[in-house]
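Incident log, support desk, overnight shift.

02:14 A customer reports that sequence design results differ from what the structure should imply. Their input is reproduced verbatim below. On-call engineer (initials T.W.) acknowledged and began investigating.
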């Protein structure tokens, strides 16, 4: 027997039945590539500005099973030291952002001095 006092009233954090059914029918809150791209564009612009959004376009979206991976196009080949491609991972089921940022490409190391030659005895 279910103890109604333990499940009623429902927690304010519990998703409604309607929301859960929609998630199951569509494949989650973030259910397709286009929506993941829009979220990526909005977050990129909000965190890094309109100019950076323009530089990172087109955004690439990859289906990783339970989440979407959104990546920018700027400096993907990592040939230019400094800020690189934008990245974002979004859970399909509930829209949570798993990670967000930009890669940083370090400058090449300075030329190192020649190795010390051992002395002969």
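02:41 Re-run completed on a clean worker. Output:
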């Amino acid at each position: 027997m279910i103890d109604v006092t333990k499940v009623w009233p429902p927690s304010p954090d519990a998703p409604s039945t309607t929301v859960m059914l929609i998630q199951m029918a569509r494949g989650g809150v973030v259910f397709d590539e286009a929506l993941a791209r829009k979220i990526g564009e909005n977050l990129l612009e909000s965190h890094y500005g309109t100019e950076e959004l323009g530089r990172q376009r087109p955004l690439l979206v990859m289906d990783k099973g339970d989440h979407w991976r959104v990546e920018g196009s700027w400096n993907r080949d990592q040939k230019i030291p400094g800020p690189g491609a934008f990245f974002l991972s979004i859970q399909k089921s509930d829209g949570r952002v798993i990670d967000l940022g930009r890669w940083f490409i370090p400058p090449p190391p300075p030329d190192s001095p020649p190795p010390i030659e051992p002395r002969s005895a």
